[in-house]
């Protein structure tokens, strides 16, 4: 008995020590218009603190970060802390009209960012209209004091933010896209740390240069902040070793290229072990749908070794960068990721499932309304997107506030289907009934019990066009237990699940005309958005909401809202 008491006391002291280490950090984000020059022209763009990309938040595991967001711009804004679970505190999660109404011009909102078990690289970005094209930055979550990385200590850390650049104002791009109902205008360039690189006009002088010392190892923290595309990435004559994704550690994965989805983060080690020279770092879009328009350009930075030597001119280009349409390269990289699953960083894959969901992901078409000009499908329709044939209709007030106050009537319904309303050959390439393209437009949510274990299978369809869908879940991480091409068949495909060390993620690319199975425990009470992270798809309606009910104990209930929630 005495032994148990000492053990209990020791555990309590350990928890107290860990808690005492947690810090309260404060940042100020001023949203403002700032002039930037790229591609031979200057334009005003929305920034945070005048920076593009925006400032990096640096904290340690378990810290609390207060970010005072001051909107000095001309448009409404919200900020999302992508990958931060915000335990019991969805009020600062950020998606417009899901957890909050927007911060209006001239207003401010003090957002509390509660870090819990995240460790590694995450990011923050705007979550209203298309402002995230320029409103984004990294979140670096270091190990707790007294602990270390589960890999050799790097000599230095390097941020890489992949993005897109439009010569036109992004608000104009968004408005034209919404008005026409077709595809948006392609970006004019891809960027690495805000710069297009040597292969674009008027860009050589600004090309991002990453300086390294031969013999040293660098931890690269990368995010794909692009709006509408998966990206291939490679460094000439160098392989990398992936050690983390989405704020969780992975088993070391050595590769000579990377595939990264919009919204996803990756941490990798880069050894500067090649002859001293200049080497191109290059990135291009992956597009498995060749009939669609896309930005088929390549952005570059330069890996520049220190020392006295005559560098190659131009720098060496990475021959391992996959072709833009290499579907196997995209799938194989993502399918190779594994959780570290060590004693220090354990995982907890749900083995007994209480709720099984099957969600189809579709591009749809809505007939062009009378007296309108529409740009989709030979100018006869407007594009839409759906999950289980429901196109999410964003309400005009926040779902979270309505749920918390018990006034959901007229804001949302709770009849989102667990399975698609119609079964068909989801990946059939032709001959599908045109009526299948027409979705229901609604604001429906799925209710989950507290601590309910969930298996969710995403199934891509080929209704209008099959394409990869990077699906992102707010408020939770999930285990990616399986994926493949074609139609999912439970009796066959569940036998291939990885329940030992599946990657622990918040954003996963469902392959074109394929499926992905995830598992998670609904242990975070609140209102949580789930959506495709291709911006055009979420704008078309590929999103839905999970409401995780309160648990029975006081520490399993949604915390009260802050006093300065933005009004609707």
From TrEMBL:
Keywords: Apoplast, Copper, Glycoprotein, Lignin degradation, Metal-binding, Oxidoreductase, Repeat, Secreted, Signal. It catalyses: 4 hydroquinone + O2 = 4 benzosemiquinone + 2 H2O. Residues 1-22 form the signal peptide. It is an enzyme of class 1 (oxidoreductase). One of its GO terms (cellular component) is apoplast. Binds 4 Cu cations per monomer. CDD domains: CuRO_1_LCC_plant, CuRO_2_LCC_plant, CuRO_3_LCC_plant. Its cofactor is Cu cation. InterPro entries: Cu-oxidase-like_N, Cu-oxidase_2nd, Cu-oxidase_C, Cu-oxidase_fam, Cu_oxidase_CS, Cu_oxidase_Cu_BS, Cupredoxin, CuRO_1_LCC. SUPFAM superfamilies: Cupredoxins (SSF49503). GO terms for biological process: lignin catabolic process. Its EC number is 1.10.3.2. Lignin degradation and detoxification of lignin-derived products. Belongs to the multicopper oxidase family. NCBIfam families: laccase. PANTHER family: LACCASE (PTHR11709:SF369), MULTI-COPPER OXIDASE (PTHR11709). This is Laccase.
């Amino acid at each position: 008995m005495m032994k148990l008491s000492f053990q209990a006391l020791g555990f309590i002291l350990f928890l107290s020590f860990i808690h005492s280490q947690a810090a309260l950090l404060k940042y100020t984000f001023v949203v403002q218009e700032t002039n930037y020059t790229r591609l031979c022209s200057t334009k005003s763009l929305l920034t945070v603190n005048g920076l593009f990309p925006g400032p990096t938040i640096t904290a340690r595991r378990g810290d609390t970060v207060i970010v005072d967001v001051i909107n000095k711009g001309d448009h409404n804004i919200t900020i999302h802390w992508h990958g931060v679970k915000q335990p019991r505190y969805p009020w600062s999660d950020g998606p417009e009209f899901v957890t909050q109404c927007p911060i209006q011009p001239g207003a401010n909102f003090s957002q509390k960012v509660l870090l819990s078990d995240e460790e590694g690289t995450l990011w923050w970005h705007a979550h209203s209209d298309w402002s995230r094209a320029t409103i984004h930055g990294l979140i670096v979550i270091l190990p707790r004091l007294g602990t270390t990385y589960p890999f050799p200590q790097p000599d230095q850390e390097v941020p890489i933010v992949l993005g897109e650049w439009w010569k036109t104002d992004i608000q104009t791009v968004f408005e034209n896209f919404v008005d026409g109902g077709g595809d948006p205008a392609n970006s004019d360039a891809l960027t690495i740390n805000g710069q297009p690189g040597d292969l674009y006009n008027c860009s050589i002088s600004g090309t991002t240069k990453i300086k390294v010392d031969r013999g040293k190892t660098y931890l690269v923290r990368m995010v794909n902040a692009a709006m509408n595309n998966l990206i291939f990435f490679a460094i000439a004559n160098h392989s990398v070793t992936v050690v983390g994704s989405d704020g969780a550690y992975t088993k070391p994965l050595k590769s000579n290229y990377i595939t990264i989805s919009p919204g996803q983060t990756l941490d990798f080690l880069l050894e500067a072990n090649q002859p001293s020279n200049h080497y191109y770092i290059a990135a291009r879009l992956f597009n498995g749908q060749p009939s669609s328009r896309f930005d088929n350009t390549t952005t570059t930075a330069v890996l520049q070794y220190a020392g006295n030597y005559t560098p190659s001119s131009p720098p060496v280009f990475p021959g391992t960068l996959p072709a833009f349409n290499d579907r196997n390269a995209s799938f194989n990289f993502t399918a190779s990721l594994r959780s570290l699953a060590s004693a220090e960083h354990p995982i907890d894959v749900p083995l007994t499932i209480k709720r099984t969901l099957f969600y189809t992901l579709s591009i749809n078409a809505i007939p062009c309304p009378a007296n309108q000009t529409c740009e989709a499908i030979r100018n006869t329709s407007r594009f839409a997107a759906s999950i289980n044939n429901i196109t999410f209709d964003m309400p005009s007030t926040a779902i979270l506030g309505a749920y918390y106050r018990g006034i959901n009537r007229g804001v949302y319904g709770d009849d989102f289907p667990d399975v698609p309303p119609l079964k068909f050959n989801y990946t059939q390439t032709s001959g599908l009934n045109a009526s299948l393209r027409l979705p229901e437009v609604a604001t429906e949510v799925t209710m989950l019990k507290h601590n309910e274990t969930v298996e969710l299978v995403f199934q891509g369809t080929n209704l209008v066009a099959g394409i990869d869908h990077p699906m992102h879940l707010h408020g939770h991480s999930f285990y990616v237990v399986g994926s493949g091409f074609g139609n999912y068949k439970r009796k066959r495909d569940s036998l291939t699940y990885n329940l030992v060390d599946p990657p622990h993620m918040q954003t996963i690319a469902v392959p074109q005309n394929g499926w992905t199975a995830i598992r998670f425990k609904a242990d975070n009470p609140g209102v949580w958005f789930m959506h495709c992270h291709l911006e055009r798809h979420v704008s078309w309606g590929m999103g839905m909401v999970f409401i995780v009910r309160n648990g029975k104990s006081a520490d399993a209930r949604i915390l009260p809202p802050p006093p300065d929630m933005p009004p609707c």
